[in-house]
UniProtKB/TrEMBL annotation:
Keywords: Carbohydrate metabolism, Hydrolase, Polysaccharide degradation. It comes from the Eukaryota. Residues 1-169 form the GH10 domain. This is GH10 domain-containing protein. It holds the Pfam family Glyco_hydro_10. Belongs to the glycosyl hydrolase 10 (cellulase F) family. One of its GO terms (molecular function) is endo-1,4-beta-xylanase activity. PANTHER family: ENDO-1,4-BETA-XYLANASE 1, GLYCOSYL HYDROLASE. GO terms for biological process: polysaccharide catabolic process. PROSITE patterns: GH10_2 (PS51760).
Length: 169
């Protein structure tokens, strides 16, 4: 058994299952069902373009999602993600962690990352950076950015973990 599960990945930007089944409470049911099967596991929501932006189109689920091009779009997605978590908590979904996909395609000031994480921290649920990779700059620039982002995130009490994606590429 695993200690952590993404109950259903990328439900903020793609609600394929709930749409096909015409069930707006499907994600809550999925959390409760997973919890009944593996009560010791931490169950996660996990989504993209709420922490590190994408500047290109992303293929997710069974359709293409538009990339997040501006801070205002990311802020809107971040607020929607927070509301999604709050709604799930209000309906009894046993959420153990919030995953924020960390595909860095360009750097932002570290304070902006801290502010984004602090918005989600208001839910009281531990945060994990997931799918973390750096897709800009040369090796030295990537190392410097990783040093900064790791120092920042490890210094925040509400960030509980980091999962790298393509670390050795």
């Amino acid at each position: 058994r695993f200690a952590h599960y993404d109950v259903n990945n990328e439900q903020l930007h793609g609600q394929w299952y709930s749409g096909k089944l015409n069930d707006t409470d499907l994600l809550t049911w999925m959390f409760k069902e997973f919890h009944s099967l593996v009560p010791s596991a931490k169950l996660f929501v996990n989504d993209f373009s709420v922490f590190a932006g994408a500047t290109h189109n992303i293929v997710c689920c069974f359709h293409t999602c538009a990339g997040i091009e501006s801070y205002s779009q990311m802020f809107h997605s971040l607020q929607a993600y927070k509301r999604q978590v709050e709604r799930l908590l209000a309906t009894g979904a046993p959420i153990g962690g919030i995953g924020v996909q960390a595909h860095f395609s360009k750097p932002s000031p570290m304070v902006s990352y801290m502010k984004r994480l602090s918005v989600l921290a208001q839910t009281g649920i531990p945060i994990w950076l997931t799918e973390m990779d750096v897709r800009f700059g040369n090796d030295d620039e990537q190392v410097a950015f990783l040093d900064d982002i790791l120092r920042l995130t490890f210094s925040l009490p509400y960030v509980e973990g980091i999962i790298f994606w393509g670390f050795w590429d």
